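lol forgot to send this yesterday, sorry. struct tokens for the thing we talked abt
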């Protein structure tokens, strides 16, 4: 029976990947900083609480793994500064040093970011562009990806990097972390009756991908590794949704949930500290990954926003009742 270890299993993406893998007849090791309730399923699940910056704890966590899904993310998310390098790069460096040995190298599927390219040189991005990361987070993600590619070239691991776009959606595992991205942030504001503010004229586009579709991409990579190993692959819905329209959709869905009038969506000038990457549109062409794996996004923007808003409203109402 295959043993798959998920590092960062209680995170927003990690929770969804853990839930998807729990449906399979495998040994599933779900590793997080704190214990959480695993999802039901066919898998033999072991939950491991560990600080993976401790090499000994990391070694124990991944021992005997046929595949490792690497979803660690330092506190502070995409705006993480230099202090996050230990988590965003150092743990992966430790991992490839620890898992080398006799036998077939383990598969390592790593969560990168489409923003590693820096200021988008064109639309859509397809993964062939040169990388010029513009933020500390993206520099770290690229550095980690390069560690993985080097270890793959040396035959230590079989590495695959899936570069993720802007992800949104609801939490899928009890005790897992909730989405802290832009869609959920706007939904929380709308629930509080606050106006939603969008930078510029609202026409900047983001490739928004629901977290369950992201989880499906990771399972697809695990199922089709041979043609993916050694490369980086961009994931996206390919829509390029205008943020102003997304925010208005959030406002309407929240109004439908609460019975209140939709909150206002207003355009504001971007703050002076906003990086240029925040002001540029990004859409993704994931044709290469789709052709190899057969993966396709299944959840539409409207359905994903509806689910996100409904889950947030239910969560808040549940806390009020208790």
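and heres what i got for the seq, position by position
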């Amino acid at each position: 029976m295959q043993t798959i270890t998920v590092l960062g299993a209680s995170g927003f993406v990690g929770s969804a990947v853990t839930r998807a893998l729990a449906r399979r007849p495998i040994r599933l090791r779900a590793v997080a900083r704190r214990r959480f309730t695993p999802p039901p399923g066919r898998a033999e699940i072991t939950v491991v609480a560990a600080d993976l910056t401790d090499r000994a704890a990391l070694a124990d966590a991944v021992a005997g793994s046929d595949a490792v899904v690497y979803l660690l993310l330092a506190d502070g998310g995409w705006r993480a500064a230099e202090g996050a390098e230990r988590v965003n790069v150092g743990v992966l460096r430790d991992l490839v040093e620890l898992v080398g040995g006799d036998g077939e190298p383990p598969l390592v599927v790593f969560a990168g970011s489409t923003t590693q390219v820096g200021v988008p040189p064109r639309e859509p991005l397809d993964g062939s562009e040169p990388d010029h990361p513009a933020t500390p987070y993206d520099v770290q993600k690229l550095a980690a990806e390069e560690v993985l590619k080097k270890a793959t070239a040396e035959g230590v691991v079989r590495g695959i990097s899936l570069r993720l776009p802007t992800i949104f959606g609801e939490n899928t595992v009890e005790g897992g972390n909730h989405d802290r991205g832009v869609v959920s942030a706007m939904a929380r504001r709308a629930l509080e009756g606050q106006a939603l503010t969008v930078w510029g004229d609202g026409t900047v586009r983001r490739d928004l991908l629901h977290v369950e579709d992201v989880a499906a991409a990771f399972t697809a990579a695990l199922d089709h590794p041979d043609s993916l190993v050694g490369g980086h692959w961009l994931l996206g819905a390919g829509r390029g949704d205008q943020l102003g329209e997304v925010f208005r959709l959030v406002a309407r869905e929240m109004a439908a949930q609460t019975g209140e009038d939709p909150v206002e969506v207003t355009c504001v000038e971007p703050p002076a500290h906003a990086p240029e990457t925040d002001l540029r549109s990004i859409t993704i062409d994931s044709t290469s990954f789709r052709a190899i794996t057969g993966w396709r996004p299944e959840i539409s923007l409207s359905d994903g926003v509806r689910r996100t808003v409904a889950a947030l409203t239910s969560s808040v109402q549940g806390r009020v009742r208790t």
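Residues 182-206+239-282+299-321 form a domain with the UDP-galactose 4-epimerase; domain 1 fold (CATH 3.90.25.10). anyway ping me if u want another try
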